[in-house]
Amino acid sequence: MIAAFSVAPTVTNNATAEMSEAVSRAVRVVRESGLPHETTAMFTTIEGEWDEVMDVIKRATQAVEAVSPRVSLVIKADIRPGYTDMMHQKVASLEKHFSNDANDVNDANDEGAN
């Protein structure tokens, strides 16, 4: 399974509502889990079996709860038993379509040159 999640405090102790310190606590939990993961500006994606992924998300949420009395959590999951390395395979599958587009453009350019 792949899960993309975002966990953030709803209360911060500064005027600019900076959340990076609290969010870094969650990302640290993910990194220490040993599961394949990727962190972007808005979400962290993690891959593994249901129980291990949900355990990491729970612990990441608890890490943010330690610094905020209220926490927001968003989870989106792709549950596909029997498949692994889907974080990379899904992107590779998508990219194939773009390489086909480039070949189509090159073929069209070649035809126009004749």
Automatic annotation (TrEMBL):
It comes from the Bacteria. Residues 95-114 are annotated as: Disordered. GO terms for cellular component: cytosol. SUPFAM superfamilies: MTH1187/YkoF-like. Residues 3-95 form the Thiamine-binding protein domain. Belongs to the UPF0045 family. This is Thiamine-binding protein domain-containing protein.
